[in-house]
Amino acid sequence: MSERRAVLEVKDLAKHFDVTRGLLRRVVAKIRAVDGVSFDIAAGETLCLVGESGCGKSTVAKLILRLIEPTSGHVALDGVDVTQLDEAGMRAHRRHVQMVFQDPYASLNPRLRAGTIVTEPIENYETMSAADRDERAVKLLTRVGLRADSRNRFPFEFSGGQRQRLGIARALALNPGLIVADEPVSALDVSVQAQVLNLLMDLQEEYGLAYLFVSHDLGVVEHIGHRIAVMYLGRIVELARREDIFADPQHPYSEALIAAAPIPDPRANREVRLLEGEVPSPMNPPSGCHFHTRCPYAVARCRDESPALREIAPGRFVACHLRGN
After folding, report:
1. CA–CA separation, 50 vs 236, rounded Å?
2. What is the Cα–Cα distance from 50 to 57, expressed in whole angstroms?
3. Pair type for strands 26-42 and 210-214
4. β-strands 6-21, 310-313: how paired?
């Protein structure tokens, strides 16, 4: 068995946004959008980041790309800490990590033809003749399932699924090692979702790509993920292999998410565990375990002491006082 090589390593990553008021913009509070997140992704692996809206999933994606600056923590790509890079260093780094966005239309320049959209990253990083760029565009477009002559079309001339394929072709243009996919199929029809997911999986096998896949759809996650990191209020509460989490979730929040997911079988019967209460504000999170206000198993310790993310079995991490003791 080959040694596992981490393409991405995230350590104690945090992002706090200031809340200001008044003419002097005085800081009165902080929103802890991401609060000490750690994980890694190996070559050829998909790590799915899941959780309710507002839990910090997309913020983690933006921090890894350095679209926003972290408050603290480290992000290493192929062993290089990108949080310490200057502008020139970041330019070299960006070719190794690309993004596939949620909205396949808003992420494409409506004034550019498909061929130009795909080769624009190449123009920024490599010296290549127009003929060679056109040839590269054709190869990328056909690889993602689009016709060669589609390079002359504008984004509005494509369907939603075709636009997302175009976005994937653009992400592949510089041969990145890591692709960050932020809800890449949530805006697509269910039948098209399966096609795009299968395309991503085929490309991963072909090129050895690492994916950080952000999603709230557990059906999608179960199809594409190798490991799953469950987030709640800016923290990872469970991290394990896909099959382990779906077969036997260890954190009460993971358990509730899986129980709430619909089953595509009208004859299936299972117990529904609805979470009570509202999601707390990240500006004023609960003391101790952030989930204790909604947890049916909470004890006194949960209100006072924040649980660390501990390894309770090989490759299985849980942040819960009731597990691994």
Report:
1. 9
2. 7
3. unpaired
4. unpaired
298 contacts: CB under 8 Å, gap ≥ 6: 289, 291, 292
Residues 6+ apart with CB under 8 A from 24: none
> 124: how many CB neighbours lie within 10 A of its CB?
12
pTM here is: 0.91
Q: Which two tokens stand for residue 5?
A: 């090589």
- As a whole number of angstroms, the distance between CA 211 and CA 225 comes to 9
How do 227-232 and 46-50 pair as beta strands?
A: parallel
| Cα of 197 vs its chain's centroid, Å | 14
DSSP character for 251? S
Q: Tell me the C-alpha distance between 128 and 239, whole Å.
A: 43
The pairing of beta strand 72-77 with beta strand 80-81: antiparallel
- Smallest CA-to-CA distance from 71 within 138, 14, 145, 147 is with 14
DSSP secondary structure, 312-325, as one string: EETTEEE--TTS--
94 and 86 in contact (C-beta within 8 Å)? Answer: no
Q: Which of 3.20.20.140, 3.40.50.300, 3.40.1280.10, 3.50.50.60 would CATH assign to domain 6-96+176-233? A: 3.40.50.300
Tens of each residue's pLDDT in the chain, 325 residues: 346 789 999 999 999 999 988 888 898 889 999 999 999 999 999 999 999 888 999 999 999 999 999 999 999 999 999 999 999 999 988 899 999 998 888 889 999 999 999 999 999 998 888 899 999 999 999 999 999 999 999 999 999 999 999 999 999 999 999 999 999 998 888 889 999 999 999 999 999 999 999 998 898 999 999 999 999 999 999 999 999 999 999 999 999 988 877 766 666 666 666 677 778 888 888 999 999 999 989 899 999 999 999 999 999 999 999 886 5
Joined tokens for residue 130: 């127009």
Angle (CA) 287-293-299 rounded to 5° is: 80
- Residues, the chain, total? 325
